[in-house]
Records
---
Amino acid sequence: MEDFLAAAVEAAKIAGEVAIIRFGFHKTKNVEHKGVVDLVTETDKKCEEVIFDYLRSKYPDHKFIGEETTAACGVTELTDEPTWIVDPLDGTTNFVHGQFPFVCVSIGFTIGRIPTVGVIYNPIMDELFTAIRGKGSFLNGNPTKVSTQTELVKSLLATEAGTKRDKSTLDAITNRINNLLFKVRSLRMSGSCALNLCGVACGRLDLFYEVGFGGPWDVAAGALIVSEAGGLVFDPSGKEFDITSQRVAASNSFLKDAFTEALQY
Amino acid sequence: MPEKYSVEDFLAKAVDAAKIAGEVIKHGFYQTKHVEHKGQVDLVTETDKKCEELIFDNLKQHFPEHKFIGEETAAACGATELTDEPTWIVDPLDGTTNFVHGFPFVCVSIGLTIGRIPTVGVVYNPIMDELFTAIRGKGSFLNGKAINVSSQTELVKALLATEVGTKRDKATVDETTNRINRLLFKVRSLRMCGSCALNLCGIACGRLDLFYELGFGGPWDIAAGAVIVTEAGGHVFDPSGKDFDITSQRIAASNPLLKDAFIETLKQ
């Protein structure tokens, strides 16, 4: 497992460097649209290429699921085979907007469909989150834990506006936020699902949910990083987390029940 | 009476004070915090109070005739009126909730007004080591490098920031989320980071295209940020489109190209 982690860290750092140095600050981004507000850049594609090339050279028999390859070639089914699930640049909108500092590489590794290794690297803030199943969660090599907050009204909640702009989705989003604002301390939106999960894992955030994000690559690494930090990852309905559902919620164990109840809007 | 100091001196001393306070914030950031409540979700800590003390002591030594308005002093002793006198307007720790939770958007904000006009601005995030500075007429800088607002012309490609604030009565919360709902149909996406001063800096350096906030604490949240935005080529105005009023607890900011469309959208 440690070898898989080391490989993932190396791949993440290479990609991080590509994103920042080759395509970074002061450079005009060539932005394409996957949807009205769902962006992709050559950086996303290049980063996915370097990550896949590196990991394939070490593990040619493993399977690979990447956000950009999926967009180009269609969905790859998640099987029990050792599978690398990669978001080469989570927070593309942030990256395009002068590197609003919440961007990251997210590399998850599943065996038997279970997240087993997770690496999330934010090259702008130089923060590397790592976890191996059963072996704890780390930020830049130091162990991290979820918060010990027990009260919803003292909790910091994160969510995102997402990329759908139809009326019923937006109304559901803002109605849910309205409902939650009466119950929590405050709300943050930073634009990266993977980094929101890391925020919960290191205690900066107490609660996170997102419904309708892109795919398993947004959560494969983060889910493990949260659970290895002592947190819980679940479906916003309270049911078990499903990595392909495009729905996720996370919190420490004290807040889960109250949070799940508050989410049933 | 002629000043023996130049605006550059004011800036240099403000940066020194910000860095001293920044060290205290950085040290406290990773420790357990003792939190008091100014309101149900409006927090203050001993760090806020200590930083204000340090900044005031430092600046008062150099500029004993200047006036001082600070968030924590105002909370303790009541509001001080803003006059034409050179006045330091200080938020010793903007983003207290973030500070308590270890979320890295915290800053010291030090503004100087002369004739009620923001003239010098310093905003320092000691966790991300980002120092934003500006002097009226002399440009805006991030860690010494010149910065500019974005050149975005289309609202639908613009990144908007706002905050949910600290009021939790139904009317305010409903208005807040209704406005966000309407805006989400018109902009690219939404960010909420928990620091008004850093949102203004985000506009100034082009990371954000649009910002508005209604009902923040006081002039200390914006005195520095306002000059940092305008010196980066941006506009600061009341969300209604009228002129910006530093004591109104209302603010909007954008680049000049987006301003009209933004005001139009905010009015709906």
---
Amino acid sequence: MTSRGTPSRFLQSVLQNGVGRYVCQLKRISLIFSKNGQSSLGAREFIEEGVVDFAQNNPGTVVYVSPQSCRIPKIVAEYLNGNVKEEAITSKTSQQIVELITKLTNQSGLDIIRIRKPVHTDSPSIQGQWHPFTNRPLSIGPIGPQKQQTN
Amino acid sequence: MVFLTLSCWIRNRGPDRYWKVQEVLSNARHFRGRKNRCYSLAVRAVRRAFVYATKARKIKRRNMRTLWISRIAAASREHGMKYPALMHNLVKSSVEVNRRVLSDLAITEPKSFLSLAKLARARQQEGFGAALSDGKEPPGVFSRIVTLQ
């Protein structure tokens, strides 16, 4: 896992999200679970108690609940930039699933890879970036408006 | 007549050699030469790469610090001061700015860096004056030690 061998990105927000209004980046969340199966117990409990509250608190996110016969219950989260994240919730309690879902709502859809710098600015220099002539006096003298030559 | 020993000679090898090999080769894809294709060469190269990556975590901090120091030294020499003098006088004036921020200021905020260099120069002159005058003149402005109450 070298830094050159693994992908990395710079810190950014999706389209400057928090500057004006905040838009929740989670587009769709699908709960896949089975109706009879011990691993989906936490998922079923969460659907009984917490799903409706979650859906009401996040009006911008679509919640799909699909009971299928599956061995591992999953949460599939899709984000506005197209990234899809799958998390398995086998043998998790309802509380753990709530925490997981809050974590997914607070994420933007950007890849979870190494972030090169912990900071980002669009305007790094206020006084003007240094160039070799910043601290050198002008050879000509102070530049002003041209005096009109009287003819 | 039934030949039975032939079936005893067939061995069942492991089923996932391909994936174990791909696990190593995927870390070697950006290497040069046959090390990015041939497993035996790649194993050795990948192990060295990981060792270098582990060691480099400490070395990166060292390299970044020397980079900052050389940048601050170049910027302060533009203003007629040397790096040790600048840092010592900034510390004496209780300006606790670290080398990373100082080098960023020198690049993106040249006027602020100039003012810091002038501050350090003034403190240096006060230090020289205090050393040479043997306590007859009042102490300088920048040599005052401020205590928070």
